[in-house]
Amino acid sequence: MKTIAVILSLLQVWLVVAMPTCRLEGHLVQLAHDLLQNLGENISVHCLPYNANMSFPESVLTGANKSSLQCHKALWVVSESLRGAAQIMEDSIPFGEGGEPWNKNTFSDFQNLQYQILDQGQCLTYKDTTGVLASYFTNMTTIIQQEDIAFCGWMALRRDLLRVLKSTLQKHDTCFTWRD
Ligand SMILES: *[C@@H]1O[C@H](CO)[C@@H](O)[C@H](O)[C@H]1NC(C)=O
Ligand SMILES: *[C@@H]1O[C@H](CO)[C@@H](O)[C@H](O)[C@H]1NC(C)=O
Ligand SMILES: *[C@@H]1O[C@H](CO)[C@@H](O)[C@H](O)[C@H]1NC(C)=O
Ligand SMILES: *[C@@H]1O[C@H](CO)[C@@H](O)[C@H](O)[C@H]1NC(C)=O
């Protein structure tokens, strides 16, 4: 029994030491943020009635404080948000209130970055016991599948991704790796 306990505690130390090596490159995330800022439009007043179905769960941006898991969690939220968005974007093409699709070249550059970041983030595992992020993406998918209000979903998705990327880059900048 004692041996098992020792092995388990060694494993725990190893996990904590090993986890911070799973990182995302800050400049890629910053670039994805900047491209997204140039894509699409700000949320329209016509989308107000759907607000309840399009509210990003703020709780995922807080929590997991002070522990060695903080960086891991923060980077996971970035990766998981981009993954959820990528899944929606695979099935539908984003467009604005007037029906105009997002700029093709900028969107394609954004998607390339998105996949690069997701590739780096593959090692970021975290058990979201609340399931709020999954629930958010289910809600967003439902909105975007409704042709007449899909633009609201794209506007909200853009708004929320910008917030996730910006706030994580600001609050947890040391969690990212930065090129010299
Ligand atoms: C869109 O929203 C951002 C952030 O709230 C703001 O800085 C920007 O000026 C807005 N753009 C327009 C065209 O309203
Ligand atoms: C995390 O820390 C911030 C300040 O550093 C504090 O305001 C917030 O309540 C903390 N959240 C949790 C879940 O402990
Ligand atoms: C999803 O939509 C339902 C119905 O409006 C809402 O109660 C729930 O809070 C939404 N989930 C999230 C994570 O926003
Ligand atoms: C909002 O969410 C609720 C509960 O999930 C659902 O019944 C309703 O149809 C949704 N509204 C829209 C506009 O998608």
Automatic annotation (TrEMBL):
Record-level GO cellular component terms: extracellular space
A biological-process GO annotation: defense response to virus
Subcellular location: Secreted
Coiled coil: none
Pfam family, one: Interferon
UniProtKB keywords: Antiviral defense, Cytokine, Disulfide bond, Secreted, Signal
Main localization of the protein described in the UniProt heading: secreted
Molecular function in Gene Ontology: cytokine activity; cytokine receptor binding
InterPro entries attached to this UniProt entry: 4_helix_cytokine-like_core, Interferon_alpha/beta/delta
Signal peptide coordinates: 1-18
Entry annotated with the keyword Transcription: no
Name listed for the protein in its UniProt record: Type I interferon c
Organism ancestry: Eukaryota, Metazoa, Chordata, Craniata, Vertebrata
